[in-house]
Amino acid sequence: MQHNTRNGLFSLIVVGVAAGVAGGFAAVAGGSLFGIASGSRITAPVIEQAAEPAGVDQESMGALVRDYILENPEVLEEAQQILQARREEESRQLAMASIETNRDAIFNAPDDMVIGNPEGDITLVEFFDYNCGYCKRAMDDVVEIIKADPNVRVVLKEFPILGPDSLAAHQVSMAFRNLAPDRYGDFHMALLGADVRASEAVAIELAKQYGVDEEALRENMNDPAIEESIRRSYQLADTLGISGTPSFVLGDETVFGAVGSETLLAKIANVRQCESTVC
User: Fold this and answer.
1) Among 50, 71, 83, 150, who pairs with 21 as Cys (CB 3.0-4.6 Å)?
2) How many CB atoms lie within 10 A of CB 44?
3) Which pLDDT score, from 0 to 100, does residue 207 have?
4) Could you give the 3-state DSSP secondary structure of residue 256?
């Protein structure tokens, strides 16, 4: 990765030299690679200064640039940091647009289960898989958030991506929710928090412990609405750029991974204050 970045930056500089900014390398030798080393942007005076000298061939300039970079490799790190920041901002803007376009499907889908305060003023959406180890960790974070903030509404998006066992466990979970919605929260926590791999058999056995009849459960698992709901979750996740679990949607941001309750609570506070996770 570092090698590719170096080659890319080197090529970019050489192309710039070929376009007529060759002579400005005198400023580079003095400690500024067209403003990158100092973190500043290219300004008109620098471009004008670079365009004045003539007669420096591209090969010689390329060698000078290469020598400078080898002697000052930190400029590559600075350039990479700037590039990463720009890409993150671009991704954030795209995510914000996707969230706004799909707001009802994300926050108010009628077939999603809600835990916490159903009337809460802030909604935290979680895409999860019952066999995701990080989701098990994030479950404790969600519980902590619900305890710390009684006005948070948590929407659970069934997102089975870890194989056939996960898919079957989620189908059982959704059938359970249809049959016993008042007990779903406890069932969900128990299945997600189990120290065994979630599967159809494990989920059904747990459902029976919560008083749901196995025959009724199996019959409900065949409801086409369950398959359709999972399909919509896949499509929505793809639209939001979600490919792993846990992933959260909060306000105008998609949050990837088990980032911890403190981070999520801070973002919740920002949403209340300025309607964005970043104020």
Assistant:
1) 50
2) 7
3) 97
4) strand
